[in-house]
Design brief:
The protein is α/β, with parallel strands linked by helices. The chain has one domain (3-196): Alpha-Beta Complex (DHBP synthase), CATH 3.90.870.10. It has helices spanning 14-25, 47-57, 72-78, 83-92, 127-136, 157-164, and strands at residues 3-6, 30-33, 38-43, 66-68, 97-102, 118-122, 140-144, 170-173, 183-186, 193-196.
Amino acid sequence: MAQFFQIHPLNPQPRLIRRAVEIVKAGGVIVYPTDSSYALGCRMDEKAALDRIRRIRQLSEDHNFTLVCEDLSQIAIFAKIGNEAFRMMKQLTPGPYTFILKATREVPRRLQHPKRKSIGIRLPDNVISKALVAELAEPMFSATLILPGEEDAMTDPEDIRERLEKEVDLIIDAGAVAYAPTTIIGFMEETPEIIRQGAGAVSNLR
């Protein structure tokens, strides 16, 4: 049965952030808010937790997985960032963007795209998600909380509790979080490419 923490969306209680991260470090799966939706999260090297998220979301093997990072310097450990990517990411983050980059050897192979060896990277503009990854001191694996058969992410913590309290270890209640898909930008080629136009505005890109 999941624990249920009510965390203030603007002034998160440090005690609850620490307890949430303890659950993640112990191999737990959590539901937490970002700037674009509620999401499922776990440690990136916890295979059992990752498999639980795959099962909840019914994700395929070639799904583009995402790491939520604390800052650009942390990203550079886990993804290969060229000059153009660095400039754009510095300009756009934090915000509702997902960047597709070539993964470094620090990223577990099961998180990399099986063919492209890529990884999604996020720096959400959300106080709670920032506090979580800062306390964790490493990136957190993340997947938008869209249940099988649904097109949109869940937005109401009480609804999430009703549906998932037996599937996850912690649900963070930060109030309603409207779903707005991130803008996905690929940096796998020389020229950056908009893979999906979402909430994040981007100019001068195809």
